Amino acid sequence: MKLKTFLLGTCSALLLCGFANAETLTIATVNNGDMVRMQGLTEDFTTKNPDIQLEWVTLEENVLRERVTTDIATKGGQYDVMTIGTYEVPIWAKQNWLLPLDNLGADYDAADIIPAIAGGLSVDGKLFAAPFYGESSFIMYRKDLMEKAGLTMPDAPTWEFVADAARKMTDRTAEINGVCLRGKAGWGENMAFLTAMSNSFGARWFDEQWKPQFDQAEWKNTLQFYVDLMKDAGPVGASSNGFNENLALFQQGKCGMWIDATVAASFVSNPTDSMVADKVGYALAPDTGLGKRGNWLWAWSLAVPAGTQKAEAAQKFVSWATSKAYLELVASKEGWANVPPGTRSSLYANAEYQKAAPFAKMTLDSINSADPTKPTVKPVPYVGVQFVAIPEFQGLGTTVGQLFSAALAGQMTVDEALKQAQDVTTATMTEGGYIK
Length: 436
Hints:
Number of helices: 19
Radius of gyration: 23 Å
Shape: globular
Distance between the termini: 85 Å
């Protein structure tokens, strides 16, 4: 009897020790729909990995970027897995701030990741972040309102067509705005949209000698066109609207068109959340005939900071969340239309996905049409479609974004915003040694 009691006590202690020794991964992520959905499905991961517990830090996009950048640069060690974007990966990997993802498991199939997406997340052939979803940007529009305006949306429209259509679809008495575009200040908010838009107008951030170009006609044409269009056909308070705010407006039937991330297509076409789910059409981002469209290239990805003490467990989670099996899990729970898009070639060869997602082909076409190595009409010394892949851009892009948001709000003129953008960018680039 004493022996039996001792054994039971030992087993209980071992069980308690096992629970006490379970690793807790702290995961910093963005508050968008796909990431929130993932949190609801993590029982699948913890059931398969009972020795790993998960703690989530879910933040608005601008706040997330600020927190994870501060933490990794100061080696704070707060997070074991970080949600970061295509901008950060090459810069941080070269600083040795990220661990290479070389332990994702034998069945992970990294070769299946869409090449354009994988290329932006790799340095010297090594993957430093795994894409949770990839995206470009395109036009989502109300087919019924387009028809009512007597127009037919081309697959590849011009900005002139979009502006004309937006003004004709606007109905202030019915609270319908012809177009909803990002206005919230931030290098990854309004400047993601405006930088991509400017590419299609022939603009660029810098010439080949790193001289800022906001004093050139191409930027004046871009910003003036945007401000005038939003004044005539955009929502009230547009300077406060980012991705999530415009998503809500579109789902509520208050936008005729929305030019934004391709990933939004599954949300606007979901009848559970969108009042206009059965009325949405898709088209490529607009151009001006110069050879570049106003679409970007991005991936929200999961990376493991070099400061973590839980690298093995962290890579297990990253592998689970970005695997083919995860796409199948989402499909089994919420349907193929709701799986995270833009990461794996096999998804776009999947007949069930093609059938469930009418936006699939346009998404892939948009991703493939963006070239981060040649993002502009004129040559530039940088890579990045809607960003410039230098460390200074995060702060610089947000500062310029604040100026352009103020111009949209009518707090300064377009000319004033561009002059201040030119001055602050010149000062930053001179201080950084880019301009001799």
